[in-house]
Please model this.
Amino acid sequence: MLEGTANYNLGDNTGLQFFYVDEDVKNGVRYYYALVAYDRGVYTDAGVLEIDPQENTFNFSVDAFSNIRGTSANAAVVVPRPKAAGFVAGGANEDLSRVTSGRGTGSIEVEVVNSEEADFEAVYKLEFESESLSVSEYVTTKYRLLKVNDGTTLFNREVTDAPPYVDGFFVRVFNDDFIEPFPEQSGWVENYGSETETFSFNPAELESYRTNWIVEVEPDQSADGVYIPADFELIWSDENVYLPPRFQAINYLRDSLNVIAVNLETNQQADLLIVDRNENRDFDVEDELIIVERVGLFQFRHRVRFSLPQNQSSQKPGTGSVIRIANKKPFTSDDYFQFSLNDSSFDTDLAVQELEKIAVVPNPYIASSEFEVRTSSVGRSERRIAFINLPAKCTIRIFNLRGEMIQTFSRDAASDNGMEFWDLKSRDFQDVAYGVYFYHVEAPGIGNITGKFALIK
Model:
């Protein structure tokens, strides 16, 4: 302090990041991280800097051979690594690809990163807040995590803020920020109403469909068009079940239809207008349907057009045919996800499949690798290559071209650790020669795999 005039300027109150994800790291390479607080220095009334900005100190203690001997409380040394074969990370028991309740089309992900702090008996609820921009537009503004068991709020944050670490896990939110068409969930619907619904605008891609009407859908862009978040369905029948309303009869055909339109949010039937594009006074594949709703006046929602594959005759849709018109929607105050946690686990079948991913890096090894730490006093540390994607428990044997076993080592690592280093020394603690080598990995209860790698000067 300078006689009480020190000024700590930490910028605007835009919120704190409670975690940082380093997206550009390489497995097996050592990284150093430090967390410090800082000030902006001391300025005179005239704006002259008298004391330079300062930050907390941090420390890494490294010996002459690059071994870490200690760090300050605000520092850490990290070596990222691939997961072990068969490892399944902890997460949520429930399907979080869709909301437990509500209209939002986004998803969330839950990742358990510390089993010791995780509460596997708890039930969690992620809720949202939204703000209306107009009659049909809104944005998601906040989200909060509740622990249902005792009613505590674990965090309440702006939707733009990064989610904090709580109870041994992270929850990441993937919100659809805008109301817009959702083509992946639109088109002719197969396995209607089941968990395995599939969609295609071309019914030839769906096994159960006999119609050949290819559909194209777009929001109505006319002066009467009002785009709303609601999804719609066109439900077809073998019989005529609907007569369009009297609306500008000069422009629209009033012909009985074997299809109705339904607003899935209100569960109310919408109206349909027919644009008689071929002017034959009969609804067919060349015409266009407009989905409209009466909200005081008619409001146009979507335009639906059809076409046929080349050189095919029309096969009209009938009973069992449904077209879904879906929109992406931000989360609202009525949306929530509810979930519980499960711990990491081991999947034997997955481990068998992932044996094929076992590899040596770098391959070839050319004089050195990124795994080798260098210092000014000693130079390069021990030579190193790495076996990656290994099972947590296995035995690795290394042979030369003559079939002589050069080295063998067994590992019994943590369930999420799929990396093992080799210092390029034989069983007699001698540096191995450059050349081609073979390896054999034996994992009890999982299987065996072989491979080769090269060491080059």
